[in-house]
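Example 3.2
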Amino acid sequence: MMDVITIGEAMIAFSPSSTGPMKFVNSFEKKVGGAELNLAIGCARLGLKAGYISNLGNDEFGKFILTFARGEGIDVSQVGLVKEYPTSLNFKEIMEDGNVRTFYYRDKSPTLLMEPDGLDETYFSQAKILHLTGIFPAIHEKNIAIIERSIELAKKHGLKISFDPNIRLRMWSKEEARSVLSKILPHVDILLAGDEEMEIIIGEKDPKTIIEKTKDLGISFIAVKQGDKGSVGYYNGEVFEAPPVKAAKVVDTVGAGDGFNAGVLYGVLQSWPLDKTLNFANTIGSMVVGIVGDNEGLPYYEDVQEKLGEIERIER
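Structure, written as tokens:
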């Protein structure tokens, strides 16, 4: 039985050896990236059973990602290796303050060979949560049908649907994102969204207004991410403003939202109260930004416990 399954595209993420404009960077380190895979990794490190659905190129990069994901304890039985398209790439530009720009090379994505009827219904019947993002449909419009089919299967088998809009304006316009993602919202059970993303989708940025508008769609758990301002959530009629957790140092902001998402899903699956869930998720986000890499900073459960002061670890 899987706790969380997700659909997306993993990539080779080339991380710069130095900060500053990419045109002045002379070397990069090969790492693994992709929001949905990051989410699966974050869940697995917290102790959840996570599964990943995707295609990768049948090349050295694709095999590297597959081996990496398997090593993280993620079920990759639904990941195909295809020879028609190469594994996608991205290059990161990291500035001194930790802000990141990403440059994608994913036009010929291996996921273009995925089809709605290729989704394994049995796999969905053995899971608790389906996590989706707005990145997968932004890759190509044909992926919208795969998202729709995954929602259909999730509803059929009683899965909760988790959704992070994760809008990438390098991949599509605000108008395209709004048109597609607004149609997903009515099917969502757990909304994990940034305030700026919701401004694009529903025209509102204030967290409490976002909550009012989205809970009317039938969304039962809502978490509005505000970066270094913390988060605001809604569950069972309660609204809670979770204060930010200060990071020791911000060196790379990529993956913080995925870590937050993993923390929320963990809390939901443990039936934690809203305040405990959001504080746990905020803590994970603050830990991720202190390490360079898309998923290197995603903590194990005991790491979060230590950060929260729940346990003490003896180092020597």
